[in-house]
Structure formats: structure tokens, C-alpha cells
Amino acid sequence: MVLSNDSIIHDDQPEIRSLSADVELPLSEEDRELLFAMHRYVKDSQDEELCEKNNLSPAVGIAAIQVGVPKKMIAVVVDADDGTTLEWALANPKIISRSKTMTCLPDGEGCLSVPEAHPGKIFRYDRVKVRGYDLLTDRNVVIQATGYAAIVLQHEIDHLSGILYYDHLNDPAPAAYTVVE
Q1: Residues 6+ apart with CB under 8 A from 2
Q2: Domains of the chain by start residue, with CATH
Q3: Residue 14: partners with Cβ closer than 8 Å, 6 or more residues away
Q4: What mean pLDDT do residues 31-45 have?
Q5: Which of 93, 86, 158, 159 shows the shortest CA–CA distance to 130?
Q6: Is the backbone peptide bond immediately before 26 cis, with ω within 30 degrees of 0?
């Protein structure tokens, strides 16, 4: 299975607001193939040449609902502060704890499923702990993420509940927050 921009559904399509269902473990071959394809899309999309060659848009994450599959699966590939790359292909990801401190990106968020810009600050938890099954390591994991990685995980997990980033634009600003650079 190969995903491209032609596979992505947009925010003008009602399916993007669907609630995603838990995925049965162990993953079926069909679910494994989709989750690997999602991971490949995100990883390849971070290479300018592959973007052009394979009709991809730059991304750091994707949820299965964004390709029309209402299942709790996400793929994330982000650079960590220490220069390493954090990669997950998660089934049934769930936030199990979060910090009280909030953060945001200086220029707001973007999304493969939202072609028009919606500028503004989206406040997210600075630290999250996420539990799920990671296909890349073939095991159940608990991820402790901070800063940018935490923002991306929250963004993708929101998709599983039919929530788009701009739904948070009118959330009240916290008394204090940090900005992830």
C-alpha cells in the first residue's frame, strides 16, 4: 500500500470528524500494512525530493482517519531536541497523563487535512505520557514526550476523536505557557 496526497481527506469532508475505533491486537495484516504506509508517508514527506516524486506534503504525523480509515492508528516522525529522530507507528494510542504546564507553537499548527491556514495559538500540554502498541518495535510502549513531540502526539490523537487543531483556536489562553521554538 502506498499513500500520497490523493489519499488524504480534507476538513470539508464529514468523514474527518468520525470517531475512530480501537484496533484489535495483534494487528491484522491489513492494519499492519496501513500503519506501515502511514509511517512511510510521514518519513518520506520530510525529504523534499521524495515529496515531489511521490506527491507528498511535508508532515510530522498522520492519523488513519486522514486516509478515510476510522481506526485508532497514528504515525509520528519528529526531530528531538538532542538531534535524534523520534518515530512511532501507534495503534490505540491514549494519553494517560499530562502536565499542568501548557505550550504552543509560535506560528500555530498545520494539518494535511486542512489546506487553508487557520492562524492562532493552539495551547497543548507541555508533557504527555502516551500508551499504545508500537508497530515499529512490535511491543506495547509508554512514551514520555515533551515540547514539540508532545504537541504532535496530541494533535494526532485529537484526530481519533474527530477534533481538528483549529477547534482549539477559541480555547482560553492559560495564565502561563511556554512557546516551543
Answers
A1: 37, 40, 54
A2: 5-179 (3.90.45.10)
A3: none
A4: 98
A5: 93
A6: yes
pLDDT at residue number 96? 98
What is the amino acid identity at position 24? E
Nine cell digits for residue 62: 498522520
pTM: 0.96
Percent of the chain topping pLDDT 90? 92
Nearest CA to 73 out of 30, 11, 109 is that of 30
DSSP strand E in the chain: where? 61-63, 73-79, 85-98, 102-104, 124-125, 127-134, 139-146, 177-179
C-alpha to C-alpha distance for 109 and 117, rounded to whole angstroms:
9
Kindly report, residue by residue over 86-112, the tens digit of the pLDDT.
999 999 999 999 999 999 999 999 999
Of 119, 103, 112, the residue nearest 159 (C-alpha): 112
3-state secondary structure 21-49: ECCCCCCCHHHHHHHHHHHHHHHHHCCHH
Cell numbers describing residue 151: 504537541
| Cβ 76 vs Cβ 91: under 8 Å | no
| 48 labelled catalytic | no
